[in-house]
Amino acid sequence: MKALVYHGPGNKAWEDVPDPVITNPTDAIVKIDSTTICGTDLHILKGDVPAVVDGRILGHEGVGTVTQVGAAVEGLAIGDRVIISCISACGHCAYCRKQVYSHCLAPEGASGIGWILGHLIDGTQAEYVRVPYAENSLYKVPASVTDAEGILLSDILPTGHEIGVLAGKVKAGDVVAVIGAGPVGLATIATAGLYGPSRIIAMDLDANRIEQARRFGATDGVLSSEADWRNQVMAMTDGLGVDVAIEAVGIPATFAAAIDIVRPGGVVANVGVHGKPVELPIDRLWIANIAITMGLVNTNTTDTLLKLVEQHKLDASRFVTHEFTLAEIEKAYDVFGRAAETKALKVLITA
After folding, report:
1. Three-state DSSP class for 317?
2. Third-level CATH fold of 161-294
3. Tell me: the pLDDT tens digits for 193-204?
4. Domain 2-155+299-350, CATH among 3.90.79.20, 3.90.180.10, 3.40.50.300, 3.40.50.2300
5. CA distance 295 to 167
6. Cα separation of 216 and 211, whole Å?
7. pLDDT tens-digit profile of 145-155?
8. Helix, strand, coil tally for the chain in percent (to 5)
9. Helix, strand or coil, per DSSP, at residue 268
10. From edge to edge, which strands make up the β-sheet containing 242-247?
């Protein structure tokens, strides 16, 4: 089969690789109907995730069709159309029993990390993928949910919802700022609206992203390239700062911005994937009673979000801005990697 293979920082190739096979009785093989590219894939290509080795097939998101199931797999059958979760979870270990699937302790996640596809084992940017712990890592797709909608439930909708909105404790009446209106930031904005905040302020360097954010539910936009960006945010909050500041980029400057605009007693929820350390001014944060959260998505709300998408109470269709075939995946990376120029949000890559 063909797959996109990582060959060290800055190097990837669409090339022939062996077809995946059932390794464990809990596995399934899924034919990829659609996949996409995540900001985390770009971090990998920058060398920010050293656990990804030369020869690894990239990708951790997908919608596909089950072609084989292991002997121990129940509830799934050949021909089922499924969403592939970015988190692989055995469902039985100490962490899985607490729904902390991101730290599954099963053998293939021996490092205690549930994100293994495209990271510790071969991923979804391929014609076929082996999915471990298939019963807990695949979700049947309702017939009315399109690939363009389903693909968002692999990662960005659960990530924005769980690590941004739920961890940030967004509640009715809150003023929320989302710093970074990329795909995960927009997913955070879209799911924050489910909890009734009074304002959602989108912050980004790109005016187009700010405009997109309004379509996803932002009530206000602030260009962080403007010198008075902080004053603009404070003016929207009676000078107090926001209740919840959600960092959705993963660089020191945006983490610092979140700290600068959160009010005493507020929450900073870090969603972005950081490739290097950030400064934590704990000397002034402790007395302001600031809570800081961060984490890898657990995907324990995927079922709920899928129901909301199916019932059109959460509009996922507008995330996909560009479509490519698998054979055009390197072109898709170029377009996604130049999002400020191409205005790309999510790219849908189909078989």
Report:
1. helix
2. Rossmann fold (3.40.50)
3. 999 999 999 999
4. 3.90.180.10
5. 9
6. 9
7. 999 999 999 99
8. 30, 25, 45
9. strand
10. 220-223, 199-204, 175-179, 242-247, 262-270, 291-294
